[in-house]
Amino acid sequence: MAKIERKYLAHFINAAALGSTQAEYERLGKDLEEFSAELSAQVDTKKNILGESSIVISGYDKTGSVEPYYAEEGSALFERLQDIIDNGRVLDELKTDVVEVKLWKEAENGGYSAIREEAFIEVTSSGGDTTGYQIPFTLHFTGNKQKGTFNVSTKTFQEA
Amino acid sequence: MSDLEKMKNWLLTCPYLGAEVLHTEHTDAAPVSSGLYPLGLEIVKETGDVLGNRTQHCRYRFLLRQVVPEKGVDADRLMRLQRWTQECAEKPAFGDEPEQVHIRAENGRLTKASQTGTAMYTVEITADFIKILKEKE
């Protein structure tokens, strides 16, 4: 069995401008050596007087850190992040969605197996060093998910 | 145009080069003669991203050799040449990010002085640039 290369797990973030009803997906990953969704499970472990352990995993506090992110002119994601910085956006103004696409699974009708999840954008800083204008951010996932397919050519998500 | 030709053409714009012709891997014994000797390409660092793209931080090394009529006269000119490579706003377009090209000219020195009076000076020139190997979509 062959290892699955990292490039076959794709993450597309909806970078549409605030208030837009049409999703505009951009793939995360340029200049990003690593992107992992940290699940941070809520684990409750109890031991009874018989020496038996019971483990309850009741949920997840899933986050994903995008660092570095280099600002690029013409990028919808850059425009969204810069808007957050310039206007101090808070609450639902930071809401977006992220589609995780499994590119190693054979496409069906032009779409790859995918899961869309609601997330909130936390801009952690802006500026950076001499390599370029950087806006690292963290995605906080809510657990509100839909299964479906994603067409990488049209960059559209179709709920199952 | 090859990267070697780009480098030669760029050096020929230097007001302190003191030559109108720049040979490749060759200098005449008689002054004034200038030659540029490529010393190869080094991959200083290579990184990748989750899209499968590779970024290589590359370095060309060159040796500039000049045969001049006598020692001592050209030392100041070569020091100015070294400073010019650092300060010149226009750089040769190496790699995929021309704004990230950095040229250094260092260790300019007299390497040989003959009994007939001619002298040879050398300057080490390095060019750092970035090459991006994109993953096929």
Distance between the termini of chain B: 28 Å
Helix content of chain A: under 10%
Poorly predicted spans of chain B: none
CA-based shape of chain B? elongated
Termini separation of chain A comes to: 29 Å
Percent of residues in β-strands of chain A: 35-45%
Number of helices of chain A: 1
The chain pair forming the largest interface, with residue counts per chain, is: A-B, 13 and 9 residues
Rg of chain B (CA only): 17 Å
What is the tally of beta strands of chain B?
A: 5
- Largest sheet entry of chain B: 5 strands, mixed
Strand line-up in the sheet with most strands of chain B: 1-2-3-5-4
Please give a handful of descriptors for the protein shown.
heterodimer; A: 160 residues; mainly beta; B: alpha+beta; five-stranded mixed sheet; 16% helix; 44% strand
What do these coordinates show?
The complex is a heterodimer of chains A (160) and B (137). Chain A has 1 helix and 10 strands; from the N terminus they run ββββββαββββ. Chain A is mainly β and 160 residues long. Chain A is globular, with a radius of gyration of 18 Å. Chain B has 2 helices and 5 strands, in the order H-E-E-E-H-E-E. Chain B has a 5-stranded mixed beta sheet with strand order 1-2-3-5-4. In chain B, strand 4 and strand 5 form a beta hairpin. Chain B starts with a helix and ends with a strand. The mean pLDDT of chain B is 91. At the A-B interface, loops of A face loops of B.
Short account of what is shown:
Chain A is mainly beta.
List the helices and strands and how they pair.
The complex is a heterodimer of chains A (160) and B (137).
Chain A: E1 9-14, E2 25-28, E3 37-38, E4 41-47, E5 53-60, E6 63-66, H1 76-87, E7 95-102, E8 112-123, E9 137-151, E10 156-159
Antiparallel strand pairs in A: 1-2, 1-7, 3-6, 4-5, 6-9, 7-8, 8-9, 9-10
Chain B: H1 3-11, E1 23-24, E2 33-48, E3 54-68, H2 75-87, E4 102-113, E5 119-133
